[in-house]
Amino acid sequence: MAKKSKFGSMKRYGVRYGRRNKEKVAALEQEYRFTHICPHCNYDKLKRLSVGIWVCEKCGVKFAGKAYATPKKQKLKQEEKKDISESFENFEKELEEQRIAREEARKAREEAKAAEAAAAEKAEEEGSEDLVEESVEEPTEEPKEVEA
Ligand SMILES: [Zn+2]
User: Fold this and answer.
1) How far is the CA of 48 from the centre of ligand 1 (A)?
2) What is the pLDDT of residues 64-99, one digit of tens each?
3) pTM of the model
4) Could you tell me the distance, in angstroms and rounded to a whole number, from the CA of residue 69 to the centre of ligand 1?
C-alpha cells in the first residue's frame, strides 16, 4: 500500500523545495484554512489582518494569535461550540417537554374549572331553593321581634 502523502496543499510545488519544508508549510496551511472562531462572540468570522493579528468581523475585536492560526484555545473553542449546540438541542427538547407539561396542566385546570362551574351551578340551584325557603322564613321572624 502506498504511503499517504503529508504534503496536502503543497503538492502544487511538485518535486521542489524538499520534504521537510513542504510538510511543515502544508500543516500550517491546513491550520490556516480551518474555520477560526472568535473567542469573544463565538462566531466563525475571524479574519487574519496581518501576521499574528486577528480581527472579528462580527464583534470587531482585534487580538494577537499565531502568525497563520489563532491560539491553541481556539481548537478547544470549536469542541466547546459542538457541546454548546448539543446542549442547545437538549435545551430545546426540555422547552418542548415543559410546553407539553404546561398545556396538560392548563387542560387539567380548565377541566377542574368546568367541574367547579358545574358544581357551582348545581349548588346555586340548590342554594336558590334554600334562599327562597330562608327568605320566606326570615320575614316571619322579624315582625315577632318588633312586636316583642
Ligand atoms: Zn467576535
Assistant:
1) 13
2) 988 888 875 555 555 666 666 777 778 888 888 889
3) 0.44
4) 16
Q: Grid coordinates in use for 101?
A: 407539561
Q: What are the strands, taking DSSP E only, across 46-103? A: 46-50, 53-56, 62-64
Q: What is the DSSP letter of 67?
A: S
Residue 27 burial (CB count, 10 A) = 16
Give the C-alpha distances (Å, rounded to integers) separating 106 from 111, 112, 113, 114. Answer: 9, 10, 10, 12
Using the mean position of ligand 1's atoms as its centre, give its distance from the Cα of residue 62 in Å. Answer: 9
Query: Which of 35, 32, 42, 43 is closest to 8 using CA atoms?
Result: 32
The model's pLDDT over 97-137, given as tens digits with 9 standing for 90+, comes to 889 999 999 999 999 999 999 998 888 887 655 555 555 55
- DSSP, res 34: S
Among all chains, which residue has been given the C-alpha cell 519544508? 21
